[in-house]
Amino acid sequence: MEAAGRLFAARSFSGVSVRELARAAKVNAAAISYHFGGKDGLYDAVLEKLVADTGPLMQPLIDALERGVRQARGDRDALARVAAGFIERLLTSILVRRALSWQMPLMLREFQDPSSGFAMVVRERIDPVHDAIARLVAAATGLDAHAPEAKLLAANFMGQCMMFGATRALIFARLGWEEYTPEHVALITRTLTPRMLAALGLPDCDAAEAEPRV
After folding, report:
1. Which domain CATH number covers 101?
2. What is the DSSP code string of 42-100?
3. Is residue 37 part of a domain?
4. Which residues of the chain have pLDDT under 50?
């Protein structure tokens, strides 16, 4: 599954043959049919692994965001610090941490070209993050967290962070970067955060005052 995940992330489901998958995993091609029922079953198993692998990364971010929103009790300066801290942690997780080297790119492929496993990925991995952000939006704007407007603002909030992972080749080409370094992520965070806070009607806050990392 690890070898398959890397190939699917790099070249898509249709861009990889069973023979190439077997060669990358150093197994007989028949093993894929035996263990997974074929390429489709292997891809579904890889998506399940993606969800399991990203849980330890995303769940602490969700927990910290929800705890911060509760503790802010509607205080707008406190909400701004919570939101800014979440933005910094999310960007760092998506762009710098290389432990999930294929999971994030494969998730982005699913967003662009959904497979039969897309609903599971959304339910198990995207919905919890999106719902937590929607509750932040609700606290900041007074909207109901289930209102379409709150969900759209939450999608915009989440999408702005994930965009830098989805379009990294373009960002690197335009800025002459070869990889995202902590310094690059700090620059993105400083540039993005005030505008994302403004979209929620929250005051700007100094990055040093943001909620600490978890």
Report:
1. 1.10.357.10
2. HHHHHHHHHHHHHHHHHHHHHHHHHHHHHHHTT-HHHHHHHHHHHHHHHHHHHHT--TT
3. no
4. 207-208, 212, 214
